Amino acid sequence: MSIRVTNLSFSYGEKPLLTEVNFRVENGQKVGLVGENGTGKSTLLKLFRSEEYPDEGSIEVEGTMELVPQEVKRDPLLDSAKSVMLYVNPEGTKEVHEIRKLFAGLGIGEIELDSEPQQYSGGVKTKLALARALFKEPDILLLDEPTNFMDHEGKAWVMNLLAQYPKTLILISHDLSLMVEEYKGNYSQYKRLQKEAEELFKKRVEAEAKHIKSMEKGYKKIQGYTSKKGVKVKVKLKHRIAEAKANLPELPPAVRSIKIQLPDPVRSGEILITARKISKSFGSLEVMHDVDFAIRRGERIALLGGNGVGKSTLIKLLIGELTPDSGVVEWNPMNKLGYYSQEFEDFDMDKSVLQLFMDRCERMESFCRPFLGKFNFLANKVHQKVGTLSGGEKTRLAIAMLCSTDANLLILDEPTTYLDVLSQRVILDALKSYKGTMIIVSHTEEFIKELKPDKVFLMPEAKMDFWLEDYGERVGEI
C-alpha cells in the first residue's frame, strides 16, 4: 500500500504551488506535511484523492484511502447524515460498544447516537469525522489539521492514537506537540535550523538592499556630469544598479517582517452587553440557565470550556444569531462589532478575495488591493475564489476584514485554529495592542496568557470571574 508521486506540477491560476515533485510513501510510514499557510499542503491531499488533477506528472495510489478534512463544517456527508450513528458507521460494521469506546477516548462519550451531527461544535464534528475514518480502517489515512478545535484532553488522546496507528498515515498540523511527539524532535530541529538560515538570508538581502540604496544616492550626485568620462561613469553605475536590483532575491513570506495593526476603536458606551437571566437549551440538553453578567468598556474576556459545552452558542446569543429561550441580551447601540467565526459561516465562497473584501469594507479597489497585500494576498491571489483558500488563508482574510474597521467590540471564536506559528504571533501582537473590548475563545494556553485577560467566562458553569493565573492551566485542559 503506497503512494508514488512522479514529476508532479500543479498551479492555481498563474501561481505554481508544486513544481516537478517526486517522492514515495511506503506501507506503514508516518509522514508529516509541514509548511506555511497557503503553500499547497491541503492541495496535495486533494491531488492524492483526485479531487484536483495535476498540470503535469502522475500520482499512483495503491490501497484504500480516507481523509479527515480541515473544514469538517463543509463535509457534505456530515450535512446529509440523519444521525451520528449513520455518519460514523455507514456500513453498519461496528457494534455500539465499539463506537462508545472510541467516542469515550475522543471525549464525546455523552453524544446520543441518534442525534443529528450537524448541531455540534467544530471540535465535536472533527472528532466524528476522525471516528468515521478510523472505523473504515483505510490503508492510507490522511489527516488535515486533525486537532483543530480540540481541547488539550482531546489532543493528547489523538496523539497517542496516531502513534499506534498500524497503517500509512499522512498528517498536516501546525500543532508542534502533535508533530514532535510523533517524530522525536526532527521537526523542531528542522524549524530551528530553518530559522537560523532564514535570519542569515534576511540579513544578506537587507545588506544588499542597503548597498543598492547607497549606489542610487551616488548616481543622483553625478547626474549633472556631462564630460565624456562623467557620462561613462554614470552609464556604468546605472548598469550596476539595475543588475543588483534584478539579482536581489525576494524574501519569502515566512521571512518578511509582517506587521498588522488594528485601528483605534470608535468610542463605546460604558456597558456594551448585559445578559439578564438568559437560558438556552437544545432539546433535552441545557446549555445555560438564568445567567447574568455585564461586559464593560475595555475588558478582555477569555471564554473557556471544552468542546460542545456551549461557547459558540453563547457567542451567537450575544451577537443576536440565536435567541435565548428566556431572559434578554441587551446590546448597547454604540457597539460596533468585529466578529470572527471559526467556521467562516458568513463568507461567500463563490466570490473572489478582492470582491468579498470590497463588499465588507465598502472601499474602492485602490484601497483594498494594497491593504490585502499586507496580509500576503498578492498579485493574482486577490482574484482567487474564497472557497479555494486554505483554512489559514481564510483566517488571514477574516483578520484583514477586522483590521479594516474601527470596531469597538471584537468577538473572536478560535482565531488561531488554522494559522501557522508565525501568523499566530503576528495576530497576537495586533490583539495585544488593541484598545477596545474583546471576547475571545482559544484552546491555546500561551495565546490566552499573553493577551492578559481581565476576566474569564467559564463553561459549562456559565459564570464570570476575574482572571487568575491558575485559569491559564485550564485553557487547554477543560
Topology:
Layout: E1 3-12, E2 15-25, E3 30-33, H1 41-48, E4 56-61, E5 65-68, H2 76-80, H3 84-88, H4 96-106, H5 122-135, E6 140-144, H6 152-163, E7 168-172, H7 176-183, H8 186-221, H9 228-247, E8 271-282, E9 285-296, E10 300-304, H10 311-319, E11 326-331, E12 337-340, H11 353-361, H12 365-373, H13 391-403, E13 409-413, H14 421-432, E14 437-441, H15 445-451, E15 455-458, E16 463-466
Parallel strand pairs: 3-7, 5-6, 6-7, 10-14, 10-15, 12-13, 13-14
Antiparallel strand pairs: 1-2, 1-4, 8-9, 8-11, 15-16
Helix pairs in contact: 8-9, 11-12
Describe the model.
This protein has about 475 residues and is an alpha/beta fold. It folds into 3 domains: about 5-185, P-loop containing nucleotide triphosphate hydrolases (Rossmann fold); about 195-245; about 270-475, 3-Layer(aba) Sandwich (Rossmann fold). The protein is built from 15 helices and 16 strands. It has helices spanning about 40-50, 75-80, 85-90, 95-105, 120-135, 150-165, 175-185, 185-220, 230-245, 310-320, 355-360, 365-375, 390-405, 420-430, 445-450; strands at about 5-10, 15-25, 30-35, 55-60, 65-70, 140-145, 170, 270-280, 285-295, 300-305, 325-330, 335-340, 410-415, 435-440, 455-460, 465. The strands form 4 sheets. The protein has a 6-stranded mixed beta sheet with strand order 12-13-14-10-15-16, sandwiched between helices. The chain starts with a strand and ends in a 12-residue tail after the last strand. Mean pLDDT is about 80; it is low at about 180-185.
